[in-house]
Design brief:
By secondary structure, the chain is mainly α. The chain has three helices and no strands. Helix content is 47%, strand content 0%.
């Protein structure tokens, strides 16, 4: 009976202490890229400029993707 009580106490303590687990798990440090438009765009809320590269798919890419899907999933 005593082992069950100790086990329940340990389980309850672990469950209650895990509620604020990430609360103090932070590191405050200076952002070395602050103001860098390549990373943050024109403002921190704007999308990053490095994400603007878009590539058009060629017919060879489409055929290769279809071949891979056929290999993985069959017809």
């Amino acid at each position: 009976m005593k082992k069950i009580t100790v086990l329940l106490f340990v389980a309850a303590t672990a469950a209650l202490s895990s509620c604020d687990y990430q609360k103090n798990n932070t590191v405050k440090q200076k952002d070395v890229n602050e103001g860098n438009e390549r990373i943050y765009g024109v403002s921190p809320e704007a999308p990053a400029r490095q994400l603007e590269n878009k590539y058009e798919a060629t017919p060879e890419d489409m055929a290769r993707a279809a071949k891979v899907k056929e290999t993985l999933y069959g017809k």
